[in-house]
Every structure is written in C-alpha cells, then in structure tokens.
Amino acid sequence: MEFDPPESWEGKEIKVYAFYRGESEEVAQKGIGSGIPVVKTTNSSNNFKGTDSSPQLIWGNRVSVKFEQKVLAICKELWGEKRKFEMANGLMAVMKVETWGSFKPQHLEGETKSRDVNTMTIESFYKKGNPKSSRAVGLIQFTQDALEALGDFPKSTKQNQGTQQRFDELNKKKLEYAKMSDLDQLNKVRDYLAISANRAKSPSDIYLQVFAPIGLERDGNPVLYKTGSDGYTSNQSMDTNTKDGGITKNELLARYWKSYEEGLKNKKGKSTTPTKAQENTPDDDKTDEPETGTFNAKDVATFRTYHDGRIELHYPKVIKPEYAKKVKYIYITAENKEYDICTLDWFEIDKIKYSSKWTQAIPKGYIDHESFDIDGVNQKEKYIYSDGSVIASGLPGEGKGTLTLKYVKAGGKARMIKIPEPFVFNKDSIKFNFKFEDTIRKYMSRSHFAALIGALISGKFSEIVSTGSAMSDGTCFPSKGHVNGESLDTDYLSNANTQKYIDLMAKFGFNRFLYSPSLDFTNPKPNDSNFTFKKDAAHRYHLHAGSPLITVKIINEK
Q1: Among 307, 308, 326, which Cα is nearest to 316's?
Q2: Phi and psi (nearest 5°) for 58?
Q3: 64 φ, ψ (degrees, to nearest 5)
C-alpha cells in the first residue's frame, strides 16, 4: 500500500502500522521488535517522485543512475508497469542487506566491506581457510544452489560430489561473478528472481526469494529455520525470540524492513540546506573558534587544511542535492595555492566509547552478529545489541591469547568517512602515499581526516603504512582509544621520519601519542598539560596518534 500525505501535512509525523493476517493486534503493534514494521514518515519523505530516467529509488545515493534504471527495468519486466517502482525499492532494500550497503558484485559472505576485486582469487571464497568450502558472493549473495538453478554450475554427481576439484570449479565460477560489472551481475539477479517471480506478491517477498524461498510457500509467521539446523546456526542473531523454536518469517524480514526504512532517507536528491553552524556540526566538527573568516566553498561542505596547521570547514548556504552526503578536502600551501585532494561520502553514527574487557560468556539477545576470517586481522567476532552496545573478540593487537572488549553508546553524534585506499596524491610538489596493512578499520572522523591530510602533505612521506583507525560503527577492536575514528595507528619509519610524522600530526591537532619503550622521541609540546606523549608496552610495533577533538573553525556562507 502506498500513502502520499497531502502537502498540508508537511512536517507532521504519521505512524503506519502494518498488520499481518493471523497476527493479533497486540503483536502487530509491537512493531519492529517483533519483525512487523512500524514506519514513521512525513510528507517530506515522499517529495521525490521517480521516473524511468531518474528512478529515485531507496538507497539510490549508493549507486549510479544507470544501476537504478536497470533495477527498475528488471522489476518492470518481472512484475509489470504498475508494480515496477514498489518492487524495485524492495529489491534495493534486499541488495543493501546482502552487501552491507556496498552494492558491489564482489561482496563476500561474512564480510562487512567489499574487497578489491583485482586481488581476489579462489582462496578468497574459503570459509576460515577451508579449501572445501565456498562463500556466497554478489548483489544477492549467490550460492551454489543459486548457480545451479541458473544453469551456470552443474549439479554434482556421485563421482565429483565433495571433491576438491568441484569446490575449485565452484569458486572459479564465483570469482567470475565477482569480476562482473554491477550492471552485468544485475542480469544474473534478474534471471534468478525470474525463477519464482510469479510467487512474489509483495516487495518483501523478494527477500524471501533470496534468503529463504520456502517462506514464499507458507502463510502467517512460520518457523523457517528450526533451532539446531545449519540455516539456524548461520543466522542465529536473527532469532530475537528464542522460545518460538527457531527463526520465524517475521524475524527474518525484520532486517529487510530496517533496510527499507533507512533507505527512504538515502535516495538521490535528498538535500540539506545549512544556515546555522550548530545545525551542521555534530561533536566531531564542533569548535571554540569564532565563526568569522572569508567564505570559500561551492555546492558542497568543504574542509580547508592550511600549511600552518589551521583547519576550516566551510558550509555553503545551499548544498547541491547530489552533494548532501559528500565532503570535499582542500589543502592550501604557504604560497596560497589550493589543491583539491579528494571528495568523499560521509555518514553519521551514534558516538561509542570503550566500556570494559569482557570475561564472561557472550550474552544472548544480540540482534546481529558478524564473523571475520581475514589473514592478519585481529577481530574475529562482533555481537551487536539493541541498546547500541557491541562486544568484539579476537586476537590482541600485540601479545597472545584471546581478547574480548565491550563498547557502549557515548551520547552525541560523529560524522565519518572511509579513507580512500590507496590514498595517493602526486601533483606539483604535493606528494604522499598512504596505505593500509592487515586491518579492516578504515574509517575516520572527517575532521581527523582533514588533520591527517595536513600531516601527509607537509611531510612529503614516500609511504605511510597504517594498521587502522576505526570500523564504520565507531568500534575499534583490539583498541580502546580509536573509537569514532579519533586515532590512527601507523608502522614506524626511520627514527628521524617518525619524529617528523609525530611533529606534524601534533601541528595539525593530534594530542595523544603512544610509542615503543625501546624507542626515543621528543615531545613536540612538553609544556602542554593536555598533551599525552609516553612510552607504552602495547605499542612496540606501531605508533598511536589520536585526539578526542580536532579544532576546526566553522565558516558559513552568509
């Protein structure tokens, strides 16, 4: 059902309760907690009307217009002209869940971020290093069963079932899928959905097609994965009611509805029109500096990092819709020459903080669970709870054994970016090379990133190797002090170049440094009581540079 509130209702909240046949009113009104959606919207959520050329689908700000157009065309082909938009939005919500929002054809099962497809081999599909295993891949997480249904992989025979050769062939086929363009893989998505398209009566049924086709055959809220089954074990975090014998249809669909609701806020063309600094400055951008200075930005929020250590954030009066979730970074030399370094997507999170080491059994009731099996990466497990807390476990940064840490909400918001990889710049005399090694912590506060740019450019470092900052949710296992992307670990350079790096990071606002007891460096700010500079046994092999806040002057266009 579609409902477009009249213009006179602008700004008023409307609660829409979806009631399912066979469910009592009491259960239905519990909303998302029971897997039944409660959608809160306003008229402004419906201002973006799609067309064939500009579909304005949910999560459209994550993909190209051509991608949206292709999704719409697929849904028109499968479900007809009248239903193409509702089903296309449903398919976008499904692909967001299955790819953790990357919408990449190479996205692998069990990973929150997509790998560089050029580095992938058949070994990338092994589960926990087991060559006789195969991870799902792609926009809807294609499995062996899906490839067999499509006729892209032959069914097993008595002779080859379970053999290493068959697993190798399967993973080679999945590697072919990973190397497809997103538009080409959408053709495979279409072909798979076409197999049971006539049974998909609603957009949410697309999720059942992909995740649990048996759910298309069963009315009400049946158990789709019984407790103890392989399907249950792989998706146990979905079981929010452990007394019902397994994972029910509504519990499974809760992820879909969460994606759909969030997707409404992530269409192309969603825009903000900043007019006051306090409306645009969550905690990571706040500053005690006055809002004075020469405005210099166009269409997009712009960080301006100066050679002398100053950082400014300029907000134009009107931000172009396509730049609503982007931020530009510019560096200004001593000669007042400007260099456009990069423009990145940003996103906002609830701030998180380290709570404590966790020594007990992992508490039940988590709403999501991730496993990581990546060579060189410390984190192995993450459990997410409805109160925003996270328990993460794996190998300690330095040392042996198993470490488990708990993070909780800290209050306030932080705005984050993903650090480009590799992060390289070479123009005129402005040169630097920054790259990651053995880490999935590739996210940083956008203000801290502006400070990092200043240090990289000023130092002209031929190569800086980082072992990470934070995860996209603000956690930072195995660290405590990297929350919300406020810190960065790097390998040591020569003593002289490490000292140079320390001095420059301090110049641009970092005020906490931890380093190996076997090394000797000079404190750049020995008389600053707010400056931490000390040897630490947990940092024998890497340098820690951080700061809870980077000073940024906010300048708004008048």
Answers
A1: 326
A2: -65, 150
A3: -80, 165
What does the block give as tokens for 482? 């990297």
Q: What's the angle, vertex CA 92, arms to CA 226 and CA 146, rounded to 5?
A: 50
Instruction: Tell which residue, 26, 179, 184, has the closest CA to residue 106.
Output: 179
Q: Which residues have CB under 8 Å from 197's CB, separation 6+?
A: 78, 79
What Rg, from alpha-carbon coordinates, does the chain have? 25
User: Cα–Cα distance between 542 and 493 in angstroms, integer?
Assistant: 10
3-state SS string over 19-79? CCCCCCHHHHCCHHHHCCCEEEECHHHHCCCCCCCCCCCCCHHHCCHHHHHHHHHHHHHHH
* Contact present, 257 and 96 (Cβ < 8 Å): no
How far apart, in whole angstroms, are the C-alpha atoms of residue 459 and residue 197? Answer: 58
249 touches 221 (CB < 8 A): yes
Burial of 6 (0-12, 13-18, 19+ CB in 10 A): exposed
Q: Determine the Cα–Cα distance for residues 538 and 518; give it in Å rounded to an integer.
A: 12
Contact status, residue 457 vs residue 331, Cβ threshold 8 Å: yes
Q: Per the confidence metrics, is the pTM higher than 0.70?
A: no
Distance CA 152, CA 167 (A): 14
Query: According to the per-residue pLDDT averaged within each range, which of 218-227, 287-296, 372-381, 446-455 is highest?
Result: 446-455
CA 368 from centroid of its chain's CA atoms: 14
* 382 Cβ contact list (under 8 Å, min separation 6): 369, 370, 372, 390, 391, 392, 393, 475, 477
Q: How far apart are CA 322 and CA 426, in angstroms?
A: 27
The backbone torsions φ and ψ at residue 9, rounded to the nearest 5 degrees and listed phi first, read -95, 10
Contact 325, 60 (CB under 8 A): no
Q: How far apart are the first and last CA of the chain?
A: 43
Average pLDDT, the chain: 84
pLDDT at 281 over 90: no
Rounded to an integer, the average pLDDT of 455-466 is 93
DSSP category for residue 420: P
Least confident of 275-279, 446-450, 486-490, 495-499: 275-279
What is the C-alpha to C-alpha distance for residues 372 and 392, in angstroms, rounded to an integer? 11
Contact 495, 468 (CB under 8 A): no
Retrieve residue 289's tokens: 């500096």
DSSP state of 269: T
Q: pLDDT, tens digit, for every residue of 375-427? A: 778 889 999 998 889 999 998 877 678 999 999 999 888 999 999 988 999 99
Report the Cα 389 to chain-centroid distance in Å: 17
For position 49, what pLDDT does the model report?
A: 66
**pLDDT tens-digit readout, 6-20:** 444 444 445 444 443
Of the two residues 282 and 544, the one the predictor is more confident about is 544
Cis peptide before 5 (omega within 30 of 0): no
DSSP letter assigned to residue 322: G
Question: What is the distance between the alpha carbons of residues 288 and 302, in angstroms, rounded to a whole number?
Answer: 19
- Alpha-helical (H) ranges within 80-181 are 84-98, 144-150, 164-178
What average pLDDT does this structure show over 300-304?
Answer: 94
pLDDT (average), residues 452-472: 94
CA distance 124 to 117: 10
